[in-house]
Every structure is written in structure tokens, then in C-alpha cells.
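C-alpha cells please, single chain.
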Amino acid sequence: MARNAGQLDEAIEQFVTAADDAERALGAEHPTTLTYRVNLAFWRGVAGDTAAALSQLEEFQRTLERVLGADHPRTLRARQQRAELLHRHGDPTTAAAQLTVLLADMVRVQGTNHPRTQEAEHLLERWSRAGAPPDLSATEPASPDADRAPGDRS
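Here you go.
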């Protein structure tokens, strides 16, 4: 994924194209389309359009909860991305509170050994120790199928 502003802008444009194509082919509420939209919002937030990105992530989270359920891996990932943006852009208290609740849900749904659960746990530990925003430049967005549940063909 993009590491500098030019690459980030290019990656955002690619997400716009992919999300638009997926929406035309699959529909606005298809899990793949929603995953592209979540990733697009996240990276727009990383690029500096934080308020819009947080609003979009909240909207997409509600849609994911309705379409896939609150415990679906894609819904959980959207919640984590929103917490990461909140923390990065100056609201570490709310971000940590959201991630704490999310981590409990992830443990309940996925177990303690799931890679996403461990990622969230380490992120929360880092936030507690450092008191500084995480380095999101190393964070890769989920591919449209990365959080697909076993047997999920949607």
C-alpha cells in the first residue's frame, strides 16, 4: 500500500474505482462493495479527511451490522479501523474505549489466538504504553476477501 502522499492519492483513486465497479456489478450492500468502501474511507482518513472518514466508517459499520451481523469479521474490522483513525487524529480516550469493547467482542467471537484479535490486543497495548498515535503507514487495508468467514461465499 502507499507509503507517501503521491502513492496514497493513487491508492485512494484505485479504491474509488474498485468500490464503484463493485457497486455496479454486485450492489451497494454487497460485502465486497462495503469492504472497498470501508477501506476507501479509512485511507481517506489517513490522508487527512478525518471527519468525513469517521462519519463514513460509522455509516458503513451500521450497514455491515445490518447486512452481515455485528459479529462478522468484516464488521469487527471496520470497528477497528474507526478506532485507529480516532486515535491517530486526536481522540485517544474514545479510541481506546472503543477498541477495548471491540477486543472483548473479538475474543468472544474469534478467540484469543485469531490474528485480528491479537492485532487489536497489541494495538491497545501499544497505545497504553506509548500514549501516541499508532503508525498507520504500515497498516494494510483488508482485501475484499481477507475477513471472509469460512464458507462465506457472499
